[in-house]
Structure formats: C-alpha cells, structure tokens
Amino acid sequence: MNLFFDSIIILYLIAALTFAVAIFCDRKVPNKWEYKHPRITLAVFIFLCSSALVVFWGSFIEPRIITINRVSIDLPNFEPTQPVRVALISDVHVGTYKKDGWVRRVSNRIITEHPDLVLMAGDMIVDKPEHAQYLSGFRLLTTDYPVYAVLGDHDYHVRKNPRFSIEESTAQVVNDTLTSAGMHVLRNEAREINIGCTGLSPGRERTKPCNFWLVGLDDWLAGKTDFATAVSVTKPPINGNLVTTPFIILVHNPDFILDPQSKNADLILSGNTHGGQIRIPLLGPAPRLPSELPRSFDEGLFNLQYTEALPPENRRQGLLFITSGISESGPRARLFNPPEIVLLELR
C-alpha cells in the first residue's frame, strides 16, 4: 500500500461519514443549526454520503474491475487468412496495490478471449526491482500464446527531480523476470509476425501480405528509444518511408509520434497515460497527463492524418492507439475509467 495516499483516502472516508452522521442526528434537536436549516442540512448530508461513496468506489471497487475494449483496425496492405486477434495491456504496475494475484487474474481473463498474440506496452512495475517478482504469473499466458513486451519509464525508475536519472539495473531485473516467464522482451528489436498466414491455401494468389512487422522500442522517457537499431537488426523491408508489409510499433510512451521516424509505422500501440485514471464524464481526464502531446491524446484510437490537435508537421498517415492501462500508479484511484484489456482485431 501507499501510506500517504491511503491515509488521505481513509481519513476522508472517516471524516465525511462521521460528519454526515452527526448532522443527520442533530437535524432533530431543537435549537441546533441543523434543525433550523433542514434543506441545507439535507443537501450537505447527501453531498457527504455521495462523495464518500465515490471515493470508496474509485479507490477500492473500480480499480479491481477488468473490462474488455474491442477495437477493429483495417491495416493498409494487409490480407490475413482471417482477422488477427491481439490482446494489448499496459501499465501493469505491480508492487504497491496489485501483486501476483492480479497478474494471474488478468492472464486468465486474456485466456478466455483466445487471442492470437499478446502485447504488453510497458510499465510492468511501480518502481522497485523487488516488485518484478509478481510478474511471474504471466507464465499462464506464455504457455499458450506468443507474448511480446517492451519496457516503460517505471521499469527504469525514471526520475526528473532534482536531476534526471534512471536505474538500468531495475530495468534489467524486469527484463530478466519477463524473459524467465517466457516472454519476448523487445528492446529496440523487430520481429516478423506470420500469424495472419495460418491456413493459407497453397498456390493461392495474394495481392497483399498476410504478415506484418512488429517493432518493440525501449522506453522514450528514459532516452532508450532507438528505431534505427531496431530496424537494422532484422532489416524489415523499408524503402525510404514506405513499408511493403504492415508495420506495427509497440512503445510505452505515445510521445514517440513526435519523432520523425514514427512515420514508418502503420499502427503505433502505446500506454502511459492511464487515460488520466480519474475521468470526468463529457470532459475527459481530471489530472494532467504525463505526455507532451495535446490533452486530447488521452486514450483510444487516433488517425494521425486527420487529427487537428497535432501540429501540421506531425500529421501523416498511420494510426495511434493508446490504452488506458490495467492498473494504477500514484493513488489507488480509477473513476469512470476501469482497467482495460484491449482486444484488437487486425484486418
């Protein structure tokens, strides 16, 4: 638990409910202020009870609810024998609030969806190397599915104040734990994915590829993202800025779209924002997002060619998907924004 945030939550719940009970009782006592102002007293009572309910729900109930976000994406120049089902999660953040039991629960929920491929977009731990031990439960996934992961800023324990620093050793512990669990950790590496070619009839003429390239990039905020190295290792078929097969980039921070090299991608998959964790209906995320992108880039699918929030120099063909994540960092809080597993259907 996080003693600071949890203390604030518990103290507020105690104070709100205590005050609510007190004014509720005093409303029947003659000469009391509450007795003389029954409507105001009732309004305050309702506000205190409602706020306590919202805080309790957002702190202890909604963060434990797993939702499935189903998204269909038409990739250019892609003709699989059948749609490729990709399970995407990000921001697992084991350590403070969620541990191995949560990892097993998430794994079992993914298994029920029978994906073809599982991708994890970084921030696997809160910030301490000992947190990585809780990730071993993902072995439930790797026994049946190919799983690819990248690292995020929490995995490097990136700190900006009082000066910028990262912990390479922490990232290595996370890397080794995921590898031991059977995952493929991509740190500026590319892999050819041929799942879409399964069941291909011999001799059938095809006008488009049935495979795609997956490039996993190391963390952007830690200064470890190196697209050139990723491409040079396996040399995907890139001709200038054109790719002959679909090109998918898995990177934790969506700020990567500000890098000119991101223009090589047909689809970029990322996390990091948590969707704000706390959202206000019709208004969007309540807190400031940890991103250099416009505030509208909070969660969901974005067409980078027609997104007016981007400066003209950053607009180009391609899609960006930002998942709101499966866990929390900072306070144990999610409101109008439950943890999600994204099930992408690539066609």
From TrEMBL:
List the protein's name.
Answer: Calcineurin-like phosphoesterase domain-containing protein
**Molecular-function GO terms, alphabetical:** metal ion binding; UDP-2,3-diacylglucosamine hydrolase activity
Biological-process GO terms, alphabetical: lipid A biosynthetic process
Which domain of life does the UniProt lineage start with?
A: Bacteria
Q: Output the PANTHER family linked to this UniProt entry.
A: PHOSPHODIESTERASE YAEI, TRANSMEMBRANE PROTEIN WITH METALLOPHOSPHOESTERASE DOMAIN-RELATED
SUPFAM superfamilies per the record? Metallo-dependent phosphatases (SSF56300)
Annotated Pfam families: Metallophos (PF00149)
Cellular compartments per GO CC: membrane
